[in-house]
Amino acid sequence: MNAIKRIVRIACAAAVAGIATWIVAQAQDAPPGNAGVGKRLFIADGCFTCHGRSGQGGAYNGPAPILAKTALPFDGFKAQIRNPVNDMPAFPAALLSDKDIADIYAFVRSLPGPRSTKDIAILNY
Prior knowledge:
Shape: globular
CATH architecture of the largest domain: Orthogonal Bundle
Radius of gyration: 19 Å
Number of strands: 0
Oligomer: single chain
Distance between the termini: 48 Å
């Protein structure tokens, strides 16, 4: 029985290490971007009209996803901008360069994510 527990622990540790390595690799795949420029582009290109000024999401034409602190890898983020699903307009390279997308990605990654309900005073009476 102890041997089985030991094998399960080793397998779990290996799985956690593999997932952590994958997450780090995904984060490293993102090109460097300028969050300040990204914020300007986010506003100028109208991203805020659906996703909110601080990436909090919204419901302009239907539910728009929260972008603040996005966990989406850069390649997925870029693919959504180039070939979006649902109502989002496409932004081909002629309208938004890969560098522009990297800047917007840096901006949304820099935003604080959703707060815990414990941090909202009115909800804690």
